[in-house]
Write a structure and sequence with these properties.
alpha+beta, 6 domains, nine-stranded mixed β-sheet, six-stranded antiparallel beta barrel, 23 helices, 37% helix
């Protein structure tokens, strides 16, 4: 067996199958494209579904890949076992109706044993086959596998329900007795058993049957090969490590974490090792996931990321790391994977920003949350309870952001369970409250039933036309019924052809009117949506009878369409300008295009600065003033990609796509309407920028007339300001305001000086009124000062002059009361504490407070209680 690095092993595998006529498929994004059945890409074959299902015919039926994958069904086991990872790479070779067993089996043996390739000792390899798969068994024997190294196993049949299935063969490597964790006579001590000696490294699935809905199996017309070999596991074999974590894929991350810990070292303590492993695994997973466009959030894959980051943060605390640290491991991950995934290092700054932002957010509440959790665990143990209550677990979730599974895992480490049913009950109550607070949108409910089977033909002609003569009314729905005629009220209608754009991709629907053959307006179009079978479904306010089968004239409101189209074009310019200024990591995360404004959401860590917004705005306006032509073509997806068109991967595209080009500046997949030339936009102006979630920003903007009105309003405000500050011209406003600010600062300083002098004069008087109570000297007075700061200044003067043991001062500012207490060292020695004193007197003024033994302060809302508060100070000392 050769000594190889992980990158060498990966490349060797791909090179081997390339030599067998396979095309190397690049590792796809972890975020599935057009596959709602998957939260993450979780295997190599997951990216090949389109081929195996027959939706796409590959150029080459022989394919190979090293596919990054994420599985999160057992996160809690990561770090506690030898080979559990959330992120892993799956090496695979695939045949789509091409070669089968007689090629796949000898190739596998050649790759594993040939001196040119992995050079494994054949004596250390064991093969398992499905007992009824006689062909595979015979082929393994012919290939050179000894009969005592070939085992039958009933579990060697790959079947996940309906669809392709078939027998499989697994290859096991004998790591030797030193790795064995079971007794020699243990029934699990064999290749395929639950032990650490015989390690499965490769699974070859012979997909030859179709599992039918009735439970029977029929031969597939095209047999396929689907293999999977975990890179991390194979590397651990080659590098002879006890677990996957001691390989070159993880150790640099663990070593970097050691340097940030409080002296903890990997390999010295099992509990400590778990934390190092969790951090190493999660650092890889979140780095790759964020690099592929996922972002932390409260649901879906975003929740998985948030959970991984928080879990790593908690384990960092266990290693003595009490600040954000996970983001520092991003470049370490990037360096390890640079040979095959250079994009990680290219995006390292962006990825690190996202992770640090999430870490900081969690760290703000983590310390308090952990204290509460530790307290609850301690209380439960003292009461000899075995379970944390659902209310406690929910409070940790709701107030401190602790995921349920994280609390469950933390409690389990302390030998406790959690009340999951109670937690779920609390969660349900919260959801019920939120649901009750939301209004229900009943619009378009008609689609849910009546229109599912409606397949009347309807064509959109609105790219080039805003009017349509002789449009035939094909369907009428009123009062949740399909009818032949409607005479009043609201209805939904479909025409054989329509120029009305249906709402899609954030662009609102057209508005307009419907006229009869005589030119009489019979309806107003208030909304247009897509019916279940794709037709444009018009919601109309009926003014006169509409009859199925009759023809009508459809007129789109041209001003409304032009305004919306201008703003839609602006979103394309904005999308490209954002990438130009902020970086290629920026992706569209949502949009809304209205006639009077546009809204655009995009991925980006941190606030977009005013300077960056100004730069983006300038770029867009320069493109507007350049009068760039806007054109579009309909083509196939691959041709569109070759054109450099940008796709939004949250959208679904058919076989043909529409590509919109704005000069040579922007080219995107798009299904909306646009201006004909950027000059039509006139002017672009941002009106707002904000964050709407971790790593997602939102900008709002206006164009054309709305932009002019926006600027005109601000000019009017500026003119009003000029009049107020008596600036002769607008350009003098800034200098005039600066002059007034300087004058204000000088006035404030003079006021503060006068107030200080007044306070000193008061001090000369009040410090003479010293009382003695129980051998403790006291000054307790109401003074007339501006705020708490001046009370503290008086207390400092009192301290310097050593007037008495105890000081109590109060002032009334409007309807509020401020109190301060101070005690000298001698007073403290006599058992007097300022904090105790303030707590005793503050209730008299309707307030509360606290502080140190030598000084404390309080606020209140009952000025009438000032005399009682000062008297309470005397009573407090009298009781000592």
């Amino acid at each position: 067996m050769k000594k190889l690095s992980s990158s060498q092993i990966r490349q060797m595998y791909l090179d081997f199958f390339k030599s067998k006529g396979h095309s190397i498929e690049p590792s796809a994004s972890l975020v599935p494209v057009d596959d709602p059945s998957l939260l993450w890409i979780n295997s190599g074959v997951a990216t090949m579904k389109k081929y195996f299902e027959g939706r796409v015919v590959p150029e080459n039926p022989r394919l190979t890949s090293s596919q990054k994958s994420i599985r999160t069904n057992d996160i809690e086991n990561v770090g506690k076992t030898a080979r559990h990872q959330t992120l892993f790479e799956m090496l695979g070779n695939f045949s789509v109706g091409d070669y089968f067993k007689k090629e796949a089996i000898p190739w596998a043996w050649e790759f594993m044993t040939s001196p040119k390739w992995m050079a494994f000792d054949p004596e250390k390899l064991f093969i398992t086959v499905y007992p009824e798969d006689k062909v595979a068994k015979e082929l393994w024997l012919q290939t050179g596998v000894k009969s005592d190294h070939l085992l039958e196993d009933e579990d060697n049949f790959w079947d996940i329900g309906e669809g392709p299935s078939g027998p499989d063969s697994e290859i096991f490597y004998d790591r030797g007795q030193k790795f064995n964790n079971v007794a020699e006579d243990d029934p699990e001590n064999y290749p395929g058993g639950e032990n650490e000696r015989y390690l499965e490294v490769w699974n070859i699935v012979f997909s030859e049957f179709n599992h039918k809905p009735d439970g029977t199996y029929a031969p597939l017309p095209h047999k396929n090969i689907d293999t999977g070999m975990g890179l991390e596991r194979l590397v651990s074999v080659v590098q002879e490590t006890k677990t996957n974590f001691e390989t070159d894929l993880f150790m640099p991350i663990i070593e970097a974490t050691e340097q940030m810990s409080d002296g903890k070292r990997y390999g010295t303590d099992k509990t400590v090792d778990v934390s190092f492993k969790v951090i190493a695994d999660h650092a890889r997973a979140v780095t790759f996931a964020i690099g592929d466009g996922a972002l932390p959030s409260n649901e879906g894959r975003g929740y998985v990321l948030r959970r991984l980051i928080r879990r790593a943060t908690v384990h960092g605390k266990k290693l003595g790391i009490n600040q954000a640290f996970l983001y520092k491991l991003v470049p370490v991950v990037g360096e390890i994977m640079a040979s095959y995934y250079p994009e990680v290092l290219a995006q390292k700054d962006y990825i690190a920003k996202i992770i640090k932002s999430e870490e900081d957010r969690f760290n703000n509440t983590l310390t308090d949350g952990l204290k509460l959790l530790d307290k609850q665990i301690k209380t439960a143990k003292q009461a000899h309870e075995q379970t944390l209550s659902g209310k406690t677990v929910f409070m940790l979730f709701d107030t401190f952001g602790f995921p349920f599974d994280l609390t469950k895992e933390y409690a389990a480490d302390e030998g406790l369970e959690v009340d999951e049913a109670g937690f779920n009950a609390e969660m349900k109550q919260q959801k019920d409250r939120a649901r009750a607070a939301r209004s229900q949108d009943n619009g378009m409910g008609v689609q849910s039933g009546l229109l599912l089977d409606v397949k009347v033909p309807s064509k959109f002609i609105g790219w080039d036309h805003l009017n349509k003569e002789n449009a035939k009314l094909a369907l009428v729905v009123a009062d949740d019924k399909v009818v032949d005629q409607v005479t009043t009220g609201e209805a939904q209608v479909i025409f054989d052809e329509t120029p009305f754009y249906a709402e899609m991709g954030g662009q609102v629907a057209d508005r307009g009117d419907i006229f009869d053959a005589a030119g009489v307006k019979v309806a107003t179009v208030t909304d247009v949506q897509h019916a279940p079978n794709g037709q444009n479904l018009h919601t109309v306010k009926v003014l006169a009878p509409l009859t199925k089968g009759q023809t009508y004239q459809l007129k789109v409101d041209p001003d409304f369409r032009r305004a919306v189209s201008r703003n839609h074009t602006a979103t394309h310019l904005l999308d490209q300008a954002l990438r130009d200024v902020l970086g290629e990591h920026v992706h569209q995360a949502g949009s809304l295009v209205e006639p009077d404004y546009l809204r655009f959401d995009f991925t980006h860590a941190g606030q977009t600065t005013a300077a960056e917004l100004q730069q983006i705005e300038t770029i867009i306006n320069e493109k507007i003033w350049a009068a760039l032509p806007i054109s579009w073509v309909v083509t196939d997806i691959e041709s569109a990609k070759k054109m450099g068109a940008i796709a939004i991967f949250t959208e679904k595209y058919g076989k043909e796509v529409r590509v919109v080009s704005i000069g040579d500046y922007s080219r995107e997949f798009d299904g909306g309407t646009h201006a004909n030339n950027t000059a039509e936009l006139g002017l672009f102006k941002f009106t707002g920028e904000t964050g709407i979630g971790a790593g997602v920003r939102r900008v709002e903007a206006v164009t054309g007339k709305a932009a002019f009105e926006f600027m005109a309003q601000r000019e009017a405000w500026l003119q009003d300001t000029a009049n107020l500050v008596k600036a002769p011209q607008l350009q003098n406003v800034v200098s005039k305001v600066e002059q007034l600010q300087d004058q204000l600062k000088q006035a404030e300083k003079q006021i503060e000086s006068l107030q200080a002098k007044a306070a000193q004069q008061q001090a000369a008087n009040i410090f003479q009124n010293v009382q003695t109570i129980n051998d403790v000297t006291l000054v307790a007075e109401q003074v007339n000062v501006a705020d708490m700061n001046q009370l503290r200044q008086l207390a400092d003067d009192w301290k310097q002059k050593a007037v008495s043991d105890v000081l109590v001062l109060g002032t009334i500012v409007g309807e509020k009361v401020n109190l301060i207490t101070a005690v000298t060292k001698d007073g403290i020695a006599k058992g007097i504490k300022a904090g105790d004193l303030i707590k005793a007197i503050a209730p008299k003024v309707g307030g509360g407070g606290g502080g140190r033994p030598d000084m404390a302060q309080a606020g209140g809302k009952n000025p009438a209680g000032m005399t009682d508060a000062l008297q309470a100070a005397q009573t407090f000392l009298a009781g000592k």
